[in-house]
Design goal:
The complex is a heterodimer of chains A (283) and B (654).
Chain A: H1 3-6, H2 27-41, E1 46-51, H3 57-67, E2 73-79, H4 87-98, H5 107-123, E3 127-133, H6 141-151, E4 154-155, E5 158-159, E6 161-167, H7 171-175, H8 179-183, E7 185-191, H9 196-209, H10 219-229, H11 233-249, H12 257-266, H13 273-282
Parallel strand pairs in A: 1-6, 1-7, 2-3, 3-6
Antiparallel strand pairs in A: 4-5
Helix pairs in contact in A: 4-5, 9-10, 10-11, 10-12, 11-12
Chain B: H1 4-16, H2 20-33, H3 37-49, H4 53-69, H5 73-86, H6 91-103, H7 107-123, H8 127-140, H9 145-157, H10 161-177, H11 181-194, H12 199-211, H13 215-228, H14 233-245, H15 249-262, H16 267-279, H17 283-299, H18 303-310, H19 319-332, H20 335-351, H21 355-368, H22 373-384, H23 388-404, H24 414-429, H25 433-446, H26 451-467, H27 474-495, H28 504-519, H29 523-533, H30 540-554, H31 557-569, H32 578-591, H33 595-608, H34 615-624, H35 641-646, E1 651-653
Helix pairs in contact in B: 1-2, 2-3, 3-4, 4-5, 5-6, 6-7, 7-8, 8-9, 9-10, 10-11, 10-12, 11-12, 12-13, 13-14, 14-15, 15-16, 16-17, 17-18, 18-19, 19-20, 20-21, 21-22, 24-25, 24-27, 25-26, 26-27, 28-29, 28-30, 29-30, 30-31, 31-32, 32-33, 33-34
Classes of the chains: A alpha/beta (283), B mainly alpha (654).
Chain lengths: 283, 654
């Protein structure tokens, strides 16, 4: 019997990879989506989402892409993988994603093609949206200027393209490399860790999606998960995933606080003294 | 007696005439009777006037310390600042000032002052002192990663490699704690650049990769740590845990066996090993490993943990097991369960003829439920038994022995013999022939003349190897099956137990029906028939694989995975067909959206044969998360292939 069977789960409920089936519509993610959709629908130009490691930015980006109906939006998601992206490369990728054929070799040529394509998309009644994830890696003033250049393309209703940038808090510094671009931000949303109640709901939601008919964690275990993860979804996943495994080893059902504490310890998730004090009170 | 007024007046007179030394001498007369901060301050001013900075500093410091002891902190601070006005690099004043600020809770100011001190030491090339100061800063601001980096850099510069490694390690660990994996990796690697065998960094990197889901790399790092510290129990235990996580059960088992052999008191290792044995249905080995862990949990009154472990042996009806259940329920106050287990234990003693122990147990049960007629009857019967007195002695001695015995190795009464035969029969039905053989071996020791037992055991021994290999065609196993059945029938007849109704022909017929239904496309009916056929312990691989294929054709990949896994468990990696089944399992994982496990399975096949079918291509696609040659996009999530195709052009990587 493996641990999935032991806990009557049909699949891993706390895998760290992004899976839209497990998407949890927390109030802050719902609000962020609403604001971003507003920015897109009103052709505002530039929207920014920042959040710490593991707060759900990439999940939100994927979700947003999913929700942008391709009969209404010409949308694409670019995921930055490394820091050495050049302006040429960026523009060619955008051109490619917009469906430009026979992309030119010079940047000027590509810019002209992108501009014509944006007008064509607008004329066909669609709105162009480019989502870019992990933008903090693009620490280049030239790239920021390139983004600004794209946002200069306008029609009477608004910008021809909406850029939605996702990144770590350092994204603020990257945007500051081109202050005029920073001034063009029309919607900005900051993702934080969940409140305790939301952490509880999040855990319940994921277990439910994994088809478990019953709860796996005792309520004090859930409190401990929140405490050690500080409500950061990725850490919640890591702790719960490990706790399920550890719980299975000792055949604990439901999983208690002791297992969470042991997992948190082995993962080196130590709280600050202040947080520890608070925990002692609720513990 | 000293006239303070006269002395003061004389000192002031000398000072006004520029006779500084005489003035100081007068003031010092006052200090002989009273250590006054103000007097020291005045003397300090006089030294300053004659540009004797060293004595001026000494006097101001004395004054400041007196004010500080008396609780006049602002005065003390003012004096230290006064020193710093003319001696800006006076380390003792800066440190004293920092200490005062820290005592008053002005940590930032204290840190600034200490940073200045450290800077001074660096300028003087006194690196060790600078490090000491930075360590002092760390006590005030323990979370300051920058300070740790500074310490590490300085230590490295001064050739203090141990200190440098320790500090870089702290930085890495802080980043890891915050989930800043890249930075954590960078600093752990800095440690390894200085000391390639540094265990803490190697383990840290292993933790990091474990947390980021890269269990293989995590294991590689632990392997490195083991090479450097082959006998470090905590590393070995960590390795075993990770191996289990990576489903490398054999490796985990070997590590745990090594650990428990080296240190039989390592209960963590015993516990893990015991659980592995439980999963492998090696009950006796599991009991040997878990028994001390259960006892330890009982002595720690950790009832939940003890119960969780003991529940693995719920089916084992032996006194050591039942006694521990009783101990636990007695300890955790669950009287309802205690009563049940006391009755079980009582019956067990009774049936083994240890009536004195049985009586004791029933009496305890009666205290819990005085109105229980069955228990009352038992107590009366046992108490009035003619043999009780004689058995009391023998029973007690026996119970002492059985406590140390394995759960299966006890008793010799006829009734007990019958039950053990039935137990062996059960194992045979489950395909666990080796377990059945063990039971027969024990029985044979007690009953060496019993031919039925001997025959059954020989047959079973002969069937052990082929019964679990992959080439389980019906022709291969049919003979064994028949022999075992006939032997078992003999035993059952002897024991007066009815033969069971299920036999190989039923299973075979159901299997054939399953095949026919599948050919006709009637998958539901095929599955129904194959589910019945899967009760056949002698064709587990064939039946499970066929059932899995039906599930997969139905699109029910979760059940397909389960059945393929079942088939795989029956095979050893050397068996023909092992890689075929593993490939089918990987395909089911893939189609079920479980890319992680699919990758693990494809990688496992690749190790065996890198050219096996399209495994290399599958691994490459799964690792890159990009397009395959056939245009199907492998999403990094659980989306279906259709969904993946739809979004193929919407996601791109820069």
């Amino acid at each position: 019997m493996d641990f999935l069977e032991f806990y009557k789960l049909s699949e891993h409920p706390f895998s760290s990879s992004i899976d839209n089936r497990f998407y949890f519509n927390s109030s802050q993610h719902a609000e962020a989506l609403l604001r971003l959709k507003y920015a897109v629908d009103t052709m505002k130009g530039l929207a920014v989402v920042v959040g710490g490691v593991g707060t759900g930015k990439s999940t939100l980006a994927r979700r947003m892409l999913d929700e942008l109906d391709d009969t209404v939006y010409e949308a694409a998601l670019l995921i930055v993988l490394h820091t050495s992206v050049t302006t040429d490369w960026l523009m060619k990728k955008i051109a490619m994603q917009l469906g430009v054929k026979n992309i030119g070799s010079s940047k000027l040529e590509v810019l002209g093609q992108v501009a014509r394509k944006l007008h064509a998309i607008h004329d066909s009644g669609l709105k162009t949206v480019i989502l870019v994830d992990e933008v903090q890696m693009l620490k280049s003033r030239e790239i920021m200027e390139e983004f600004r250049g794209l946002l200069n393309m306008e029609v009477s209703e608004g910008k021809l393209i909406t850029l939605v940038l996702f990144g770590l808090p350092e994204l603020e510094d990257v945007l500051s490399l081109d202050l005029p671009l920073k001034q063009r931000i029309s919607v900005k949303y900051k993702l934080k860790g969940f409140e305790q109640k939301i952490t509880e709901e999040y855990i319940k939601h994921r277990i439910k999606v994994a088809a478990c008919p019953q709860g796996i964690f005792a309520s004090e275990a859930v409190q401990a998960v929140h405490y050690y993860s500080r409500g950061v979804p990725r850490l919640i996943n890591t702790i719960c995933d490990n706790a399920i495994f550890e719980g299975f080893l000792v055949k604990a059902n439901p999983i208690g606080r002791d297992i969470i504490e042991s997992v948190a310890q082995s993962l080196d998730l130590q709280p600050t003294d202040e947080e520890a004090e608070e925990y002692r009170h609720f513990g | 007696m000293i006239d303070k007024k006269t002395i003061t007046s004389a000192a002031q007179k000398f000072a006004s005439r520029g006779q500084i030394d005489e003035a100081i001498a007068e003031w010092e007369k006052l200090l002989a009777v009273n250590q006054d901060g103000n007097v020291y301050n005045t003397i300090g001013d006089l030294y300053l006037k004659k540009r004797d900075h060293q004595n001026a500093v000494a006097s101001f410091e004395k004054a400041a310390n007196i004010f500080r002891e008396d609780g006049f902190y602002p005065k003390a601070i003012a004096l230290f600042k006064k020193i710093l006005n003319f001696m800006p690099e006076e380390v003792s004043a800066l440190i004293a000032l920092a200490q005062l600020n820290a005592e008053r809770g002005f940590t930032n100011q204290a840190v600034d002052e200490l940073q200045k001190v450290a800077g001074i030491f660096i300028n003087r090339n006194n690196i060790e002192k600078a490090i000491e100061v930075y360590e002092r800063i760390l006590r005030l601001a323990p979370q300051d990663t920058g300070i740790n980096i500074k310490i590490a850099e300085l230590a490295q510069q001064a050739g203090l490699t141990g200190k440098a490694c320790q500090s870089y390690g702290v930085v890495a660990s802080n980043h890891l704690e915050k989930g800043e994996f890249e930075q954590a990796e960078e600093y752990y690697k800095k440690v390894l650049e200085i000391d390639p065998q540094n265990s803490s960094a190697i383990i840290g990197l292993s933790n990091l990769f474990d947390r980021t889901g890269n269990t293989e790399t995590a294991l590689q790092y632990l392997n490195k740590a083991i090479s450097a510290n082959p006998e470090d129990q905590s590393i070995l235990l960590r390795y075993a845990r990770l191996s289990i996580k990576a489903e490398k059960i054999d490796e985990a088992k070997q590590t745990l066996i090594h650990l428990t052999e080296k240190d039989p008191s390592n209960l963590d290792a015993k516990k893990l090993l015991g659980i592995i044995y439980v999963e492998e249905v090696l009950i006796e080995q599991a009991w040997n490993e878990l028994k001390p862990c259960i006892d330890d949990a009982i002595s720690d009154k950790n009832w939940a943990d003890a119960l969780a472990m003991l529940n693995n042996f719920d089916e084992v009806n032996s006194t050591p097991v039942r006694r521990r259940f009783v101990d636990i329920y007695r300890g955790n106050g669950d009287t309802e369960s205690l009563l049940i287990h006391l009755k079980d234990l009582g019956e067990l003693f009774e049936y083994k003829g240890i009536n004195a122990e049985a009586l004791k147990v029933y009496k305890e049960a009666l205290e819990i439920k005085p109105d229980d007629p069955d228990i009352s009857k038992k107590v009366k019967q046992l108490a009035s038994s003619d043999h009780t007195g004689a058995e009391e002695q023998a029973g007690t001695a026996d119970s002492g022995q059985t406590e140390e015995a394995t759960p299966e190795g006890e008793g010799s009464s006829l009734q007990y013999l019958e039950i053990k035969k039935t137990e062996a029969d059960f194992y045979v039905q489950q395909g666990l022939n080796e377990e059945a053989v063990k039971i027969y071996e024990e029985l044979l020791e007690a009953h060496p003349d019993n031919e039925a037992i001997r025959t059954a055991m020989i047959d079973l021994q002969a069937s052990c190897v082929p019964a679990v290999t992959g080439n389980d065609t019906s022709e291969d196993t049919g003979q064994d099956h028949t022999d075992i059945n006939s032997a078992m029938n003999e035993i059952l007849k002897e024991a007066g137990v009815d033969d069971t109704s299920s036999d190989e022909r039923d299973y075979e017929a159901e299997f054939q029906k399953g095949i026919d239904f599948r050919r006709e496309g009637q998958l539901d009916k095929a599955i129904e028939a194959l589910q019945t056929a899967s009760g056949d312990p002698f064709n587990v691989v064939r039946n499970s694989r066929m059932l899995a294929l039906c599930y997969a054709e139905q699109g029910n990949y979760s059940d397909a995975v389960r059945q393929f896994k079942r088939a795989l468990e029956e095979l050893s990696s050397d068996d023909d067909g092992y890689q075929d089944v593993q490939y089918e399992l990987a395909e089911s994982y893939l189609k079920n959206g479980d890319y992680e496990n699919a990758l693990i399975r494809y990688s496992s096949i690749s190790k065996y044969d890198p050219m096996f079918r399209d495994v290399a291509q599958k691994i490459e696609s799964l690792q890159s998360g990009t397009e395959q040659n056939d245009g199907v996009f492998i999403m990094s999530s659980g989306e279906t292939e259709e969904q993946g195709k739809a979004k193929k052009n919407r996601i791109s990587y820069l």
